[in-house]
Amino acid sequence: MSAIRLLVLGAVRQHGRAHGYQVRNDLEFWGAHEWSNAKPGSIYHALKQMAKQGLLRAYEIAPSTAGGPPRTEYEVTEKGAEEYFALLREALTTYDQKMDVLSAGIGFIVDLPRGEVVELLRQRVRALDEWRTAVTEYYTPEGGPQQLGHIGEIMHLWVHSADAGKEWTLGLIERIEAGAYSFAGEGGEPFVGVLAEGEENPFATGEPDRNSTNQV
Fold first, then answer.
1. Whose CA is closest to 84, among 159, 9, 154?
2. Which residue has the higher pLDDT, 2 or 82?
3. Predicted confidence band at 7 (pLDDT cuts at 50, 70, 90)?
């Protein structure tokens, strides 16, 4: 699973309708260009591809008063919403997701009900436990990992990663069950994780928006 589809669908959905630069700006605000493949070219490509696949609906809007070509705004379709929530649930439950996929999922957890998020995270903990048991049943030398030569350090690394992942997930579950954050259906004041139109992004890369000339 690639993080870019989840990130782009989620970013568009947060705005209702958004053009490519808004999506890019939001994801840079999150630092996603550092921890995922959400680079400008990947973002614009994903927008166009998902529009072709019927996950996004594209609208051409008039050029700005400052001139320049018309931009395309996107909104998530019903099919796109189904894909978004499927990707989100998968990101939270699958124990062997890449870190960027899990990070993207955490970024959108408040789009799900609190109880469902807790259960999805508990599924992740169970999957980590099952994987760890399967590994340590065969790869736990009594003399330590060095007994298998330096290759033993590979499984040692993965077992420690599983332990750390479980500890972090249980901590998140505890915070959520204690009332942290405002989740879907609760009616609380949601955290605003997007930038308003024209708001300065302190984390922008400053890389030229070459895609703006391609009407996106």
1. 9
2. 82
3. very high
